[in-house]
Amino acid sequence: MEIFPRGYSGIWLQIASVWFLVALMQNFRGSLSTSNYLIGLGSYDITGPAADVNMMGYANTEQIASGVHFRLRARAFIVAEPQGSRVVYVNLDACMASQIVTIKVIERLKARYGGLYTEQNVAISGIHTHAGPGGYLQYVVYIVTSLGFVRQSFDVIVDGIEKSIIQAHENLRPGSIFVNNGELLDAGVNRSPSSYLNNPAEERSKYKYDVDKEMTLIKFVDDEWGAVGSFNWFATHGTSMSRTNSLISGDNKGAAARFMEDWFEKKGRVENLDSQHANKSGTAKIPRRVSSIVPSINENRNEAMEVAASFKSSQGQPATRFSSVAKRVRNSLRLADRPQFVSAFCQTNCGDVSPNVLGAFCIDTGLPCDFNQSTCNGKNEQCYGRGPGYPDEFESTRIIGDRQFKKAVELFNKATEQLKGKVGYRHAYVNFSNLEVAQGNDVVKTCPAAMGFAFAAGTTDGPGAFDFKQGDDKGNAFWRLVRDFLKTPNQEQVNCQRPKPILLDTGEMDKPYAWAPAILPVQILRIGQLVILSVPGGGNIFVVFSFFLQRKAFDTNKSYIQRWHLVQ
Ligand SMILES: *[C@@H]1O[C@H](CO)[C@@H](O)[C@H](O)[C@H]1NC(C)=O
Ligand SMILES: *[C@@H]1O[C@H](CO)[C@@H](O)[C@H](O)[C@H]1NC(C)=O
Ligand SMILES: *[C@@H]1O[C@H](CO)[C@@H](O)[C@H](O)[C@H]1NC(C)=O
């Protein structure tokens, strides 16, 4: 079962985007000035405990870390107007950001830099890999399967974020930022296409696809050194690695980031040697192991463990060399002082976007699963999505990573539109349990959080256990009884959540402490015509805002393109 209920990004992002538009109207009517930013990038290891810790994402108690596929990093950028405001964005190779991690990071940044970096202007986001250690969030729902809080997981993420920001801060130098976007068609499919069809035809007709296929990339160019990095946003789940994988991995986005950083490094070397012979792509680097979903090929475990163990640890190694400005004179022979290239592949509205692009099949019969409920003979446990490298999940990870990497390189090479204008930010704590949301001509209200019966069925990326089914709007008596041991939802909550039957009334459970958040920070960063909206725990709505550039109309629908699915 997956931690995020389907439809999750839909409603949240819709709520957030309404709030966000209002905020924009009120506060971002700044004057356009010619851009002259200070830019700084940083990157630091956040791999965490590689054994005996439950992994975050599939909520599978049996998925316990036992090695490393490849290491995880925090990658950060800072953009500042000289004598003006600044914003920080950190992308974690982790399942999601965490409010308690953010609080700790901000505390440390305040101790170090005073009021320069605060909860107002620091946004932290996760790539949604389902193969990282868990236990670093404060709500019960997110740490049930890790049997509570895991200090080691938490500490390494806090340290890594802090160090990546320190690096970015020390690297701050004059530079420009360019933006580009384009479609990437073969790295994500809708894993619940039948649910998407529940959207009104009129709404669906506005979109070319049933998921958002757009990648948006920003390219950082140092005045002296040229390109020093890029961040891009594209929606696809970090579920190329399966729910039975036990090796820590950044999944497809972590892989893509490494491919791009290696590519740039190699390209620099090639250009430097004036040689055309080296391979352009570094994507063959990550070794492969065979999926354990298919029992017949689950052999050679020891060999796989040896391969995993052969990776050299990079913990504690900064990605960027620190050096004084004086030393960094323009001198092509002194490339060693060049800041290392940082490339992040960030998550965005990935709600129901699966990287398992071949579709979902029954592992017993090999036939496609039931279209409406993603079941095989009525059972959800047998229905799995297949990645392009099926049955090898490592190969699927590599291929989906490679596709994102190649698109990013293309956008990177052709990015010519420069970001110009004010740097700004907005931040607010929003109580999501009682918000009014416009839906067409109606106004509807959100309720305290609750998980439906269908939630427990998981998704085709990671089916749940027992007899739960996707699309279940009835529930069953046995599980209702079990549920009532924990908390019986009151009639108001039942009505509010209808037609979704409540399995766990998480928003109203607070023993021993809160099971799910009610109040969430909503964050907006603005760099010229670019706006990044972030709600920790979710992805980011990422829009290229065009009130200034008139490049394209601002489209709030973007954020809930996938569908609203009532029954989960
Ligand atoms: C370069 O790429 C080719 C084909 O993709 C591959 O056969 C070859 O082994 C690669 N060479 C190196 C040095 O990686
Ligand atoms: C899925 O459900 C819809 C609506 O209930 C129904 O019309 C359709 O025939 C079903 N499709 C399949 C393949 O079962
Ligand atoms: C959030 O809003 C709900 C409903 O209005 C209210 O009951 C709850 O106390 C609020 N939560 C907090 C922490 O203020």
Automatic annotation (TrEMBL):
Catalytic activity: an N-acylsphing-4-enine + H2O = sphing-4-enine + a fatty acid
Domain (Neutral/alkaline non-lysosomal ceramidase N-terminal): residue spans on this chain: 37-537
Co-factor binding details: Binds 1 zinc ion per subunit.
GO CC annotation: extracellular region; membrane
Co-factor requirement: Zn(2+)
Annotated GO biological process: ceramide catabolic process; long-chain fatty acid biosynthetic process; sphingosine biosynthetic process
Protein name: Neutral ceramidase
Ranges that cross the membrane: 527-549
PANTHER family to which the protein is assigned, alphabetical: CERAMIDASE, NEUTRAL CERAMIDASE 2
Active site per the UniProt annotation: 354
Family, similarity comment: Belongs to the neutral ceramidase family.
Keyword terms: Hydrolase, Lipid metabolism, Membrane, Metal-binding, Sphingolipid metabolism, Transmembrane, Transmembrane helix, Zinc
Keyword Lipid metabolism applies: yes
Lineage: Eukaryota, Viridiplantae, Streptophyta, Embryophyta, Tracheophyta
Pfam families: Ceramidase_alk (PF04734)
Entry's EC annotation: 3.5.1.23
Molecular function as annotated in GO: metal ion binding; N-acylsphingosine amidohydrolase activity
Organism: Populus alba x Populus x berolinensis
Keyword Membrane recorded: yes
